[in-house]
Amino acid sequence: MAQIPVIAVFDVGKTNKKLFLFDENYKIVFERTARFTETHDEDGDPCENLDSLRLSVFDSLREIFKHKEFDLKAVNFSTYGASFVYVDEDGTPLTPLYNYLKPYPPELSRQFYQTYGDEERFARETASPVLGNLNSGLQLYRLKYQQPEVFKKIRYALHLPQYMSYLLSGQMVTDLTSIGCHTALWDFTANDYHKWLTDEAILPKMAPLKPADSVLPSVFPGSRFCVGIGLHDSSAALIPYLVSFNMPFVLISTGTWSISLNPFNQTPLTADELKNDCLNYLQYKGSPVKASRLFTGHEYEQQVKRIADHFNRDIIIYRTINYDAAIAAKLNLHNSGLTSSKQDGELQKSFFEQRDLNDFADDIEAYHQLMIDIVNQQTVSTNYVLQGCKVQRIFVDGGFSKNSVFMHLLALAYPQLEVYAASMAQATAVGTALAIHSCWNSKALPHDLIELKYYSGAKEVV
């Protein structure tokens, strides 16, 4: 029986670590999920268990090779961003994998911005809102001044996807999707590293830049597969859409964060946009992607629980609430609307948490109000990436794409655009495989990866 050519993709999230095997039609033929117990850094802050992650890569490959029906052609990696592995000359990690949620020392932040310009100007140059350790470049800056002896030993600072690639290729490289994502490392005007890296002698600690579709030979014993250099997960999730659609679009990727991504918008970030958590990514071909972020998934979970508790309902019922146009119309008569009342820098603040649940006739009415408030926020956020660029379609993927109330309200908010719920299994992992398609797949790029469901105002058309 002929073996099935496959690619293995390691998709590493903060919580779940997933392994997928895709065949040449991008169908999942094998998968497994793991969770690792967190460890702690020297300050007692929680962080990723790097040893568990490293060992899982090798253990997973050995398991794949036991499945004789598969012919492993390639391996690639996608992980969350803003996470550096600092390695010495031998490739050995020198520190824990610090958590990007670790508090950033205020005195170091003041020192940095006093040296390299005010926050607003620097944020514009690097397309990076001021986010502390979420700006991974500032993690390197912190290491230099807080642990100078460790800093001296660093051969390269590798973002997590590139460290995982190094484990199988033996080569240390840097990829643009990791560098170009709120890192404060990249000057988007100069299209090069920002000059502060040279001033701080950090630039020599950045491994050579490679395109995100590069592949390297494997050094895994007894194998001949090629190894991708890894991608930042948000950039990877955009790739199936770039492959499938030529017409300009915005993708709203929803989960814990709701991220509006516009790969067709090249306008510079403004001060107002940066205050409201807009940024630029670099997509896998190297061009900028304008993005805006909301913490709506987290907000949704908190407020749905509050509704369920108040009305003494089982929270599970809110997974399948149908849109009620009459309720939405009634509530909208009493809404002032976030779009006209938002203050600078207040986009992330919740409207619904200030509402008195006793004002609603029942939990369904309260739920519709929650979704109206969330969509009002979403509209303001998405408008930032729509400005200055003609777009015809909005795609929504992730959790809210399955939410009837959210999708109808979003369609009402954008009557001039085509609004679609997009459905595909494991967009990030598929994008990671697509990035190196030509090195492992003998078939043409597929164009039927994504299922679309069209929403138009209050009427749903399948």
UniProtKB/TrEMBL annotation:
Q: Which residues form a coiled coil?
A: none
Q: This protein is called what?
A: Carbohydrate kinase
> Gene3D superfamilies this protein is in?
3.30.420.40
Q: Where do the Carbohydrate kinase FGGY N-terminal domain residues begin and end?
A: 7-206
A Pfam family assignment: FGGY_N
Top-level taxon in the UniProt lineage: Bacteria
What GO cellular-component annotations does this UniProt entry give? cytosol
Q: Would the keyword rRNA processing be found if you checked this record's keyword annotation?
A: no
Query: InterPro entries, from UniProt?
Result: ATPase_NBD (IPR043129), FGGY_C_2 (IPR049382), FGGY_N (IPR018484)
Checking CDD domains in the record gives:
ASKHA_NBD_FGGY_NaCK-like (cd07772)
Q: What does the similarity note say?
A: Belongs to the FGGY kinase family.
List, in alphabetical order, the GO biological process terms annotated in this UniProt record. Answer: xylulose metabolic process
Q: Which residues form the Carbohydrate kinase FGGY C-terminal domain?
A: 248-305
Q: State the Gene Ontology terms under molecular function.
A: D-xylulokinase activity
Species annotation: Mucilaginibacter ginsenosidivorax
Query: What keywords is this UniProt entry annotated with?
Result: Kinase, Transferase
Q: What SUPFAM superfamilies does the record tag this protein with?
A: Actin-like ATPase domain
